[in-house]
């Protein structure tokens, strides 16, 4: 089925902390793979992007308990968050299946296994073919631990029309693989609708700057689920723009809580920064990810070290936000969160 293209939001004015370009891009309008490239029927997407014409709306994404009738919250099926190790996730948000930063083919080695090579500890046999029907692919960053070429290349052959939402920093990689890529700058959002009426709104937020200070930041995302207005925040380095996020709320925050450091450089933040993130977003749940918990080898592993633990994070959190619950994921096992427990 041929679908309409989309028009993205206006961008921040130049006075904002993170200046952006004049428009976001989309590659192609058709969401159906060509007949010459068949793919497994259970993975085929049936989705459309709904155009937006304004910034991410703080009022729209800041859902309140009064906005969701109790009967609706009770009848809405729970959301499911499945951790796939590393930075990879599979989310079921109101019937919309979103694959996030997948690494499902081979190890993580950035093309230089002598420098770093990371293998999953638990989901070693999980394959692309084990995924459910996908509605959307979400990419936060342009580096291989988020935009994993060894995974995305075969995935694009299976699902060339899979809708992708990404940081513009990954355009050089994704434009060669997928037909329908939407690049969101921080402050832009888009609605994603599927055939059975499910819908999410995806709003890009500012993540880390991987390079000189003038470089475009990578992305985090606030994803709002359909009628329930339940919101999930995700950024895999625990790096965020406080001035941007202070206008928003997220019921569920997915973030690293264990810091990963190199000499004189923080690769991944966490601990007290994760507590402040939860406070800033008025979170009800924290889902801590252990994106450094891999079987690793290579030169860089000798100087890479962790600071803090999940338990030390819980202690910090309990002092400042005693009512926020921590839900620790087990790789491959969905965390089910009833909508009523979050928004009612």
From TrEMBL:
InterPro entries: RibonucZ/Hydroxyglut_hydro
Stretches for region Disordered: 19-43
Pfam families referenced in this protein's UniProt entry, alphabetically: Lactamase_B_3 (PF13483)
Keywords: Signal
Residues spanning the signal sequence: 1-17
SUPFAM superfamilies in UniProt: Metallo-hydrolase/oxidoreductase
Composition-biased stretches (Polar residues): 19-29
Coiled coil segments of this chain: none
Protein name: Metallo-beta-lactamase domain-containing protein
Source organism phylogeny: Eukaryota, Viridiplantae, Streptophyta, Embryophyta, Tracheophyta
């Amino acid at each position: 089925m041929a679908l309409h293209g989309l028009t993205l939001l206006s961008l921040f004015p130049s006075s904002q902390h993170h200046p952006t370009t004049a428009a976001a891009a989309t590659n192609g309008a058709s969401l159906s793979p060509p007949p010459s490239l068949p793919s497994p029927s259970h993975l085929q997407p049936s989705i459309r992007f709904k155009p937006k014409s304004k910034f991410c709306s703080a009022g729209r994404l800041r859902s309140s308990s009064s906005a969701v009738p109790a009967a609706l919250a009770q009848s809405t099926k729970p959301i499911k968050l499945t951790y796939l190790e590393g930075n990879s996730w599979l989310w079921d948000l109101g019937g919309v299946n979103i694959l996030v930063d997948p690494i499902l083919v081979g190890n993580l080695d950035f093309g230089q296994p002598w420098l770093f090579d990371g293998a999953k500890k638990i989901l070693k046999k999980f394959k692309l073919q084990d995924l459910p029907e996908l509605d959307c692919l979400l990419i936060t960053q342009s580096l291989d631990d988020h935009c994993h070429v060894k995974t995305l290349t075969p995935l694009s052959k299976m699902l060339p029309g899979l809708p992708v939402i990404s940081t513009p920093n990954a355009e050089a990689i994704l434009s060669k693989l997928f037909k329908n890529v939407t690049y969101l700058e921080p402050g832009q959002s888009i609605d994603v609708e599927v055939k059975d009426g499910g819908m999410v709104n995806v709003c890009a937020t500012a993540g880390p700057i991987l390079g000189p200070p003038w470089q475009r930041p990578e992305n985090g995302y606030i994803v709002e689920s359909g009628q329930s207005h339940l919101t999930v925040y995700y950024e895999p380095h625990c790096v965020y723009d406080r001035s941007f996020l202070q206008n928003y709320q997220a019921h569920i925050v997915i973030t690293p809580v264990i810091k990963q450091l190199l000499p004189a450089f923080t690769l991944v933040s966490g601990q007290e920064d994760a507590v402040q993130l939860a406070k800033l977003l008025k979170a009800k749940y924290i889902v801590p990810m252990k994106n450094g918990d891999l079987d690793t080898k290579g030169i860089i592993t000798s100087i890479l070290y962790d600071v803090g633990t999940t338990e030390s994070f819980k202690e910090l959190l309990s002092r400042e936000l005693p009512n926020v619950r921590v839900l620790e994921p087990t790789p491959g096992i969905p965390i089910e969160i009833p909508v009523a427990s979050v928004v009612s």
